[in-house]
Amino acid sequence: MKTEFQAKFLQHLLQKKENQGFTLIELLVVVIIIGVLAAVALPNLLAQVGKARESEAKNAVGTTNRAQQAYHFEKLSFAAGADTPTVQNLLGISIPAQYYGYTYPTASGTLADVYARDTNSAANGTRAYSGAISAGGGNYSQVVCQGSTPSVATATMTAATSCPTDFTALK
């Protein structure tokens, strides 16, 4: 019986066809599956990229507020300059403007503000940010505000205690 089993097994191995590749249907199924996965994953990936860029802007606005506070503590006035590099040099900070453009309007003796705006916010889905810091009576108040939608432009900050219309304060 053992030899009979071996003979049948050898015949089976000899008659077995070699693997000849994938059929067209199998390839189409794989392409469709990859297409569906890409269609689902791509918007999520782009949203995560937008969130990372927004995080960079939040950090930059907060850093500017803290640097303005330190500058005011030493010089009794907020740093002001004709352009962004001048203000950043006075504050001792370096914020690259790769995705967001930063604007430092003229600072007064009691209020300094900063605006962060993505030049392509509609396509990137990123929101604008504004920040302000004020000094009075030995106390400092600061606020960082986030635009409600990507289409909201930066707004003028009039106080470091509240945000303008269409902006919400970040904690």
Automatic annotation (TrEMBL):
Keyword ATP-binding: no
Membrane-related topology note: Single-pass membrane protein
Statement: the UniProt record of this protein carries the keyword Cell division: no
Domain of life according to the entry: Bacteria
Pfam families: N_methyl, Pilin_GH
Location(s), subcellular: Membrane
Main location as per UniProt: membrane
Cellular component annotations (GO), alphabetically ordered: membrane
Keywords: Membrane, Methylation, Transmembrane, Transmembrane helix
Residue ranges of the TM segments: 21-42
Protein name: Pili assembly chaperone
Organism: Neosynechococcus sphagnicola sy1
